[in-house]
From TrEMBL:
Signal peptide: 1-24
Keywords annotated in UniProt: Signal
Record protein name field: 3',5'-cyclic-nucleotide phosphodiesterase
UniProt source species: Methylobacterium durans
Length: 82
């Protein structure tokens, strides 16, 4: 039985954001901001969270403004404002 990809990607984006965060859990807004970019730029890396993270970092210049805003210069999600 195959799961719909949306049921796989949501939890992966959660894990992705958790691996880049220092202590903060990603907000719904952060997940919503980056999920389209995962599909658009890094779909070939699904379901490997480590590779998705690396892909988003590699593609930082091509990220949507909302997803780019999630990441600060250290690569960690911003905890305030989202």
């Amino acid at each position: 039985m195959r799961l719909p990809l949306r049921l796989i990607v949501g939890p992966m984006v959660l894990a992705l954001m958790a691996t880049t965060a220092s202590h903060a859990e990603p907000s719904t807004a952060q997940r919503e901001a980056c999920t389209p970019d995962v599909w658009r730029l890094c779909s070939g890396e699904i379901p490997n969270v480590t590779r998705i993270t690396a892909c988003l970092r590699r593609e930082k210049a091509r990220l949507s403004p909302d997803c780019r805003a999630v990441f600060n210069t250290s690569g960690r999600p911003r905890s305030a404002g989202l």
